[in-house]
Amino acid sequence: MASLSTATDGEITEFKGRLSRAGFTAEIVREVNRYDDMAGIMYQALMRHPYFSPVHGLFTSAEDQIARVRALNLERGWGISDQAFVEAEKSVPAWREERLVAVVLVPYLADKMNEDDTVTAGIERTFHELWACAKAEQDASWRWGGYDQAGSEQLRLLKCTAQYQRGLRWEVIDLGCQRNQKPMDVRDPEKSPHAGILAAAALHPQWVKSMDGDKVPYVWIPGYEVNVPGENPWGRAPRLNFSCGDCEIELYCICCGDYDSGWAVPSFV
Fold this sequence. Notes:
The protein is built from nine helices and twelve strands. By secondary structure, the chain is an alpha+beta fold.
């Protein structure tokens, strides 16, 4: 969360007005200031409100996701239309009871013309932008160097995946399924998420921080295929994890024939 010092004068004034309308008086403020623990008690009470509580203790509410993607759209120049956000607000999926099933608002970005007259395709642009947003939510990050210039010859969607379409899309993803499975055995072009996993990392940072390979597994990103020159063509896929020791989000590139009980192969619900 952003520091209180970043709040504008207008936001502070509005906050004071709301406190006043709720019944706060100058005397109450003075009493709060007298006792060191009073502000903490107020804060903890506020954090127990459902609005501030992550869904299942891990995930950001749909409303907050919409607000966050709106802000990122402006900050990063994604070019997503206001109408797309209006439609997203009208079509929020229901949260499931399963703890590791997440609702994710996924931006699929358009192709971008670069200053050198080259074009970054929407698939690669979305990959790089969402990774940038995901790592910004953590203290540190690391990713396999081959992703730095990943274009169409290195990164693609799983073969036979439906045609790429720009815009906003809600996805409901089971982030804990198919553990101890080889992605090559269970991935499916209709069921395997790709950008949605990176969007989840960007919009649900508490989920990333909670990854331990046990109660919250690390995840493959099975809807992508990665080509490493000199190896079996398109034989790898991205894998996302969190290193608790380094407080670091990490994006690997692993052979799709690997498997481990600490890793899930997510699927659309």
